[in-house]
Amino acid sequence: MINPVWLRSFCTLVDVGHFTKTAERLHMTQSGVSQHVRKLEEQLAQTLLNRYGKQFTLTEAGERLYRQGGEILHALTELEIEVGENPAFEGVVRIASPGSIGLKLYRHLLLLQQAHPKLIIDYRFAPNNEIDRLISEQLIDIGFMTRQANLSEVKIEEIADEALMLITPADGVEPSWSRLLELGFIHHPDGEHHANLLLSANYPEFQHIKQFRNAGFSNQIALILEPVSLGLGFTVLPAHAVAAFHDPEAIAAHRLNVQVSEPLYLAQHKNKLLPKRVNSVVNHALTCL
Q1: How confident is the prediction for the chain on average, in pLDDT?
Q2: Phi then psi for 276, rounded to 5 degrees?
């Protein structure tokens, strides 16, 4: 019978495509991963990998083992979850989201942890593409994303939406096109994307973000509105990020004639059965959005 530990090493190697990174993920040495693959080849009397220096491709036997072995490992994982201890509020739950959603959810999830001390919230702020990768590589349990997944291993479900808002200094001046040109744009990692969505729907003059003077940049979600509050420019942000700003009197949040929202998706690995603790966190998060 095939050793499931060897099989997991082989399938993980194929998923990752690199011996060193596979060893890091499995908390092994690189030679240990190589040894597991050699033992499988010896047991099956088949060559599984065509090796080219540090690179490799699968042989036909390797492709069959990876396809059928992955199904076996998935079934074993589900069996372990189903028959093992699976408490609803104990253990680590690994989550990632873009900044605005994180500003909304993080404290609520910490309060859930406070109510259930054996629950541990591991929360990281990340852009959509990074969340895609983290889920695909099973480095997090769930993610909240504002765009469709790009990787086939990731499945998503639309759960809410979040309004985009035009933010200017609190000077009492209406956000006319000429006023925006005068102010200049405060950029952030999703600034161009958000501006394209909202401004194109409300200003016929808008063509692209480069029409505005570059007035600054910040990649820290909690600090993007600091230069706006000081009168240095305007920006476009999701509503949760605006609501979390510490000095709301210093900014003006405008809901324009054509309101634009960004969808929010719950993302998880399509072949992973979520433990009860993760479902508990998901259910709590949904009540907060």
Answers
A1: 93
A2: -60, -35
Q: Which two tokens stand for residue 251?
A: 């900014």
What are the distances in angstroms from CA 199 to CA 29, 56, 237, 254? Answer: 52, 48, 12, 12
- The β-bridge partners of 55 are 52
**Cβ neighbour number for residue 102 with a 10 Å cutoff:** 23
Residue partners of 132: CB distance under 8 A and separation at least 6? 143, 145, 149, 150, 151, 154, 267
| SS3 (DSSP) at 47 | coil
pLDDT in tens, 54-99: 789 999 999 999 999 888 888 887 777 767 778 999 999 999 999 9
Read off the tokens for 128.
């959509």
pLDDT digits (tens, 9 = 90+) for 42-56: 999 999 999 887 789
Query: Are 186 and 215 spatial neighbours (Cβ–Cβ below 8 Å)?
Result: yes
Q: How far apart are CA 136 and CA 131, in angstroms?
A: 8
